[in-house]
Amino acid sequence: MGLKSAQKHWVQVRNHTWNGRQSTTLGHVGITRLVDEGAEDGTSQTIPVQSHGAQEDLPGRYYFEVILQKMNYYYADTLRLQLFQKKSSFTQQQTAEAQNEVQVLNTVYSFMNEVQDLCLNNWTTQTPIQEVQQIVVESPCVSSGDCTTVQFSLLYNNEATELIAVGASSDEVEMALNALPSFQNDTVSVTKTDSTNGPIYTVTFNSDRGDFDVLQYDTAGNDINIEISEITKGRPKFDTFTLMWNGVSSSPLSVNATPDEVRKGIYDMAGTKCPRSLNGYIEGGSVKYFQDFETYYYWFWYYSRVSDREAFCGHFSALNINTLFNLNQVRSTWDQYGEISLSTHNMLCFAYKGFLNNSIGLSFSVIMNQQMYSYQNQFEVGIVQADEWQYICIDMLRLLKASYPGTDYKVQQITLSRLSPNQDYLIDTVYIGSDYTVTNMQDLNLRRSALAGRGIFLQDLSVIQKRGRWTSETCYEVTLMPMNCGYDFPLIEIRFAQNISGDGENETVYQGSNWNKSTTFRVTRVQAASPPIMGSFSVSIYGQEIKNLPVNISAADLKYALVGIPGMGQVDVSKWGDCRGYSWRVAWLSVPGKQPTLKINSSSVIGKNAYLNAYTQREGGLFKQNILGDFYRVPQRKPQVQVYINNIISMCSGNCSYQWDPLKTPVISGISPTQGFSVSDTILTVTGSRFTSQAANAKPSVSVGSHACLIVTLSDTQITCRIGNTTSGSAPVTVYVPGVGFAKNTFNFTILPGGSFTFAPPSGSTAVSLSSSNNELRLTAFAVVCTPGSHVIDIISGNYENQRMLNMPIFEIMDTQRETTFMCAD
User: Fold this and answer.
1) Which of 273, 630, 690, 319 is nearest to 447 (CA)?
2) pLDDT above 70: percentage of residues in the chain
């Protein structure tokens, strides 16, 4: 099949499409070769089909040879050819067969996660010693006998106890210390001894973890003198180890901990740890509903569960949640919660942060005058807008009784709303039950995230166990995957030990003051997390360059920059990606056809192996998606006749075979003469072979250009014909033999222009004169007289040069016995 000015082709069988330039064998469809029919010498050449999909231009006229093998004996096989042409004057808005150019700018960046190795060397168990500390409290209030208002706080690991009165009992001090998050994995025991100046508290740490830091205190400006000292230094048993990260401690981990246990310990340090009074409630009994958003399960109403900002407890909170509770919500066991009876579950508590409306919405029913009524209303509850986490508890029963006196209050739905449409808020640790979670909001002890202060939030982490540098060393490889390209991680440390070597930035070795000399803990930064890609780039096209485009440029700004380039026209730009690298999709809208690829200069892009590139996602041009069967032809043993009408090929509906046979083909071997005059009856002789037709009553014909030459004599090897008057110029001599076709070979016959003359008398002696049409002369000799400016030619002999008499218009015939014919010529 002849295809003109096309660059790309696809062959499709049923629903399977392949690029015809990429494979020589495509399963049951093969593109075997590509044949160029457009060579200047009239020959054809085979073009190899490339296997690598190169984008070289193909010749102007060529055809595919396609092998279509039988795929299924029960169904008909189909072949579909699609034609694509890069050059186009139409956009896809103008015709469905056009497609606009689409290119993609893409960021390439070697993004690296944080990797740290934690190695325990020679951790063998030993007899532990528990830490003992002493707190001496003195105050003038002791002598006065009234210290109830003179209070102080004890601190450990930046966590403060609730206020403790001077003279408090040992149980009160013990309870205050055990409420700290740092002691949730251990406990302390406190004994009290009274002195004349104040109480003395002895604190025993019920732990085998080793040497605890000395407790600190805060007198809040009261007249109190406190001294805290270490009585007995703790010594670890070495059956556990405690990690520390940016000042935050993990739970004790077994010296033989599995990678999953180490992972959990590190993950907990990266989240916020709440006291038991706020978190960890189990639904049932006094607790109607509790949600901390740490476990995701089916929620009837949509909300965003986020972990890219610090949660109130744990790692997750809810962003802009509208329905806080609905009776149709389902538990993790897939049964519905149903209505909240405020006679048993009247307290609503939750943490919030951001721009939350000051009121909550309640849908409820109430019995008034022995009649049930249903209402939906908003109630102000004292919510404040703040950038820090707040915690609130609301007595819903008291709230409703104040406005709707009655009995048997039941709540079906609780809703929240934003302060304004463009402002966000977070919700965490939602509790609905019978009691307050806390009575004094100031007494909340929250252990904050180890990383939130650095703006780092974990997307995930993994831990694998591996061999260390020595056989006595056990190592854990920790891979930290941050959100939002967090980087600059602090090294993980170990609790109850000191730094004895290392730079503190990439490697540190720890050892306790009363550890065995061979027992150490080593942390090594194997790989630092990559920062976000930064810098700028430039884009060039159509000979123009746009510089200093930020690597995170918005789609709108990139579009504005591109449309300013002459020749770019209108484009549509979309963007996706994150801080690891962005991509932009540029679609041409008003300029049709194939466009040059955007050129990117990434020399100012900052990042490990970072650069930007551009590639064509979809070439612009015309895409003929279904070429009709009229354009196809199947393999034939004989050449096929093709007919084009207005350069459109026609379909063969019958036998269009034509076989050329050289033994039957007429051949022209020569002509004589090769030139003549336009106003003469020149006799042309054509020599050759196979001039006589085998068809009955059929005679050959001879043509000089488009002028018929009348046959005078005919034989199988020679034809003579009279040309007659015709126009001047060079024309091919062709012979057509009916039933066989045109003779092979052509010879050109030159037709010369000539003037007119008169000859008088037509016969006589040498005294006969010849007169021209414009001039009449009487001569004594037999002569030919031509128009002035012309000359005489003997057209029978054809000897042009010998008969030219120096451009004279008179030619004298000396030999009157010779028969000749003359012509006047310019």
Assistant:
1) 273
2) 79
